[in-house]
Amino acid sequence: MVEDEPQIEKQKKKKLARNKGNLFKYWLVKIKQWKPSKDEITLMVMITVIFVSSIFSSLLQSNFGNTDIEYIQVADEYGNAITGKLYRPTTATYSNPAPGIILCHGMNNDKDTEGPLAMELAKRGFVVIAVDQQNHGDSDIGSDVLGDFLGTSDTREDDTIGANAMYQYLKSAEFVDGTQMGIVGHSMGGSTARKLALLNPDHRAVIIQAGGPDDLTEVLGMNNYLDIWPLYEELFINPMESRADFLARGKSKIESNLDLIGETPRGEYVDETYGVFANGTAQRYALCKCTHPGVTWNQKSIQESVAWMTQALQGETDGDAALLEAGHQTYFIKEGLMLFAVILLVLSLLPLSSILMTKERFVGLKTTPTEIIPTTKKEWWKSATINALIGGFSFIFLPAIGMIALSATTVILPFFRLLTGNGSLFWLLINALICSLLFKKWFLKAKEEKGLTEEDIGIFKVEAIQEKEQYLVKTLMMVIIFFGYLYSIVLIIQKYLNVEMRYMWPIFKTFTPTRFLIFLVYLLPVYLFFKINGGEFMYGQLKLQKYDSEIKTQIVWWLKYLFAMEAGLFLVFLIQYLPMFLFGTGPGLSAGILLFFFGLFGIFLMQTLPQFAVIFFVTTAFYRKTGKIYLGAFTATLLSAWIMAVSGQLV
Predict the structure, then answer these.
(1) d(Cα 183, Cα 190) in Å, to the nearest integer?
(2) Residue 229: what pLDDT?
(3) Pairing relationship of beta strands 283-291 and 225-232 according to DSSP bridges
(4) Can you say how many angstroms the Cα of residue 597 is from the centroid of all Cα atoms in its chain?
(5) Number of H helices, E strands in the chain
(6) Highest mean pLDDT of the ranges 291-295, 347-351, 422-426
């Protein structure tokens, strides 16, 4: 007699339930039955490589376990939480204390900007703390940054924006020899370092990175002074000053400084050691072929810094030997591995999106763009060039205006808390406004003359409200999954490996509560740019013809879209830097009252150009997958707002 169907199904359910009771057996069966797709295999391989790269980076940072690394937090005298990253060689103990060194980063940077020097010093037996100064990194908002910037605050002369609290912690640590303390500061951190030296006259060495030599008749209190002098300084250089004049001005200060200790310059003045370490009068001026931000990454700069601390704090008497040993560096391998991991992390969104689009919840997101090409080749290049030139020209002055204007609004409405981030945001918004006006004018004409529809440019018709809402909800849900996926990887790597997803500047890192709120506030205004400029204009008005190869289509589209979005910015970058490298002049855009401001944002182009390039690669792929602009716009907004929120100086 054959059992009835309901009874058979009942037995199957019981068997499945028993298997579920044995979770190991249940999942073993599920794994055996799983046949991964090409996208799933690709995603797993990418995640594996990301973690392998991060693990090797972490091992290099810790000198393969010979340096203990941890994040610490202390309170300054006003109760503000100051965060630091402590590098302690395992040889530094209570019975064998080691010299201590504090590293102070520059404006808009954080503790890991000094990471290359920190790990190289720790490898040589120094206990190092790289500090997040107030309003930076993971430290609290404390000082009146806007007032400091505008010159309206009553900030005390001894204000070290939290660094002195960290210095005292380091000096008093049981594994640190408090009689052998060193101080390092880059740019803004150089100002902090000078104040620390004056407050702590028992320090043994000071290194100032970037800006050019100090006038030691005016800047007092620094023992065993090393100045790392960037040949291609772009911030602290007078308008229209030639490179020769800049060097002559620096050499004049060197002459004056050496006169204080009864020494005369030798050779070309630079890369010579003067004075005596034992009585704190040693001086050296290391001229490095790098830019202002490049000082923290330049191999010679790090070599000079390590050798100087070895002589000043460890008693090395042979300067040449110290320099030779300090030339053995591994930081650039560590940083290269993390750059590779960051790029791979962003690109891994491509197979992840393909996997999600096979799920029932996201049915309808994957469509094919229409075949209609709205512009001729001549029209395409004209529109792309105009957009590129608008972006480049406006970048010369809009960020400076926005940094001051939007930051000033925090006095009344404490929303836009990123100092330089406000400058970038203002540039994004004004460019979105200009592009919106030009695009609408073009689209109305194209609808009338060519019968172009909203579908042809990857957006929804105004009357398709319900369809648009359903689509946007699904798209938003997918991007939220993207965020959870990315944040989980970033959190694991940062928490358990003590390295960040970054290169020179912060890119992706975990949020503090304050920075997470900032991230949420900046999402909408950033989205306007990527919806209009990086969406309707780029994939609508500048829509391109498909090629016979998917790979060729992706690469050619991406390169052409980079021209439309970044060519103007790249041109401005070249105008700023090429004269310095080729003709021995000052920065190309050095004239006028916006000198310092543009120099600052010109530096940001080093970060912005490659970041946008990676983001636009992903958004181009998303447009080709969905035939709509929204997944790319949402994803670009997520990535850009995240980078802005974690990397900017707070106000």
Answers:
(1) 9
(2) 93
(3) parallel
(4) 19
(5) 20, 11
(6) 347-351
